[in-house]
Amino acid sequence: MSSVVAIALYMVGVVVALVRLVYVLCQTGKPLKVRGKGDSRLFRTLIVLGSGGHTAEMLNLLAVLQKERFAPRYYIAAATDNMSLEKARSFENSLASETGHKLVGTLQFMQIYRSREVGQSYITSVWTTLVAMAHSLWLMIRVRPEVILCNGPGTCIPLCIIAFVFKIIAIQWSSIFYVESIARVQRLSLSGLILYKLRIADQFFVQWPQLQRKYPRAHYVGCLM
What was the pLDDT predicted at 160? Predict the structure, then answer.
């Protein structure tokens, strides 16, 4: 009898999990909820930076956003990427100089372990990937972002996957906005492909029309550089 009850509870759990997954997938892609024109609510925002031009593109994107709505802002880069965080600090300092507003307490700059370094063997990357996932989980629990902005660096993958799992188990709903790099003309980057195929990104943007034709769920926004 106890085995029958256990099986029944297991089946109920599976059904509930599937229903929740379908709900999350149906909600993914819907615009960020704003109460109205007078809504002054702030969105706790996690911004993923990366080397190879990713940081420059991200800062260009941030320059045209209503930054006062996306606060506090948490900048995150790989543990070996100090330059990206320095660029982010310079960017925020320039904003503070222009507006005259002090940003103490509204900004944080953090680093995260990388799943795999350039040239690292796939065998040893299994361990570093596990470490990176554990670190990502700790950061996501600590920050609990309402918005995640990313544009291709590999460090965004564990963060976005954890954010998606958090949606399913109703811990935190994070809206993930992914902007594919302008360098990607004919096909998506590996990070972009993962987030697109798994339907993890809520909004997926590309900067070339041929990419939008190839990946119809993406939004073509033109060149942002």
Answer: 93
| pTM of this prediction exceeds 0.70 | yes
For residue 220, the SS3 value is strand
Query: How many Cα neighbours within 13 Å face the side chain of 158?
Result: 22
Q: Are strands 45-48 and 219-220 parallel, antiparallel or unpaired?
A: unpaired
- For residue 155, being part of any structural domain is answered with yes
Query: Within a 13 Å sphere around the CA of 29, how many CA atoms are in the beta-carbon half?
Result: 11
DSSP one-letter string for 91-109: HHHHHHHHH----TTTEEE
Domain of 158 in residue numbering reads as: 41-220
CATH at residue 98: 3.40.50.2000
Average pLDDT over residues 37-54: 83
pLDDT over threshold 90, residue 79: no
Per-residue model confidence (pLDDT) at position 146: 94
